[in-house]
Amino acid sequence: MVDDETRVLILGSLPGEVSLARAQYYANPRNQFWRLLAALSGQDIPDDYDARLRVLRTLHIGLWDVVGSAERTGSLDGSIRKATANPLGELAASLPRLKAVAFNGGRAATMGAAALADQPDLVLLPLPSSSPAYTLAYELKLARWRTLSPFLSDSG
Fold first, then answer.
1. Which ranges in 10-98 belong to alpha helices (H)?
2. For residue 53, what are the CA distances in angstroms to 25, 47, 79, 132?
3. Domains of the chain by start residue, with CATH
4. What was the pLDDT predicted at 154?
5. What's the CA gap between 99 and 14, in Å, rounded?
6. Is the distance from CB of 100 to CB of 9 less than 8 angstroms?
7. Percent of the chain with pLDDT over 70
8. Which of 28, 31, 86, 104 is an active site residue?
9. Which of 76, 94, 115, 136 is most enclosed, with most CB atoms within 10 A?
10. Active site annotation includes 28
């Protein structure tokens, strides 16, 4: 989910089972993505998915995955096998206002940073995973996710 106004692209590795079943990013209610985004942006994040996507558009945030296809049992990144990467460089080059790419978790950061190494004008931000499987305390995750804040303002 991106458009020509996207300034921040948040990349996960590959959606988990709940997200895939619902065809919605971060659909698992235990995933802290929407809670983190609400805290960073000061926006109320509605429960309705289409309304959530509208909030992302107003914040100029796009979402996508580092992995285009893979084999995986369950939802854990550690179970991803035979991963094929999405064309991140092409996507980044097509977004005229893109300033920063944030990686939601270690697997996304490892694969994504390598794919975007030839994009020197982009700020690359590795973030702790919002997944419930990554047990870092919410407050510590939020502190690290705050590196996105400057890019969420109109001057970002």
1. 17-22, 33-41, 49-58, 88-93
2. 10, 11, 28, 21
3. 8-152 (3.40.470.10)
4. 62
5. 23
6. yes
7. 85
8. 31
9. 115
10. no
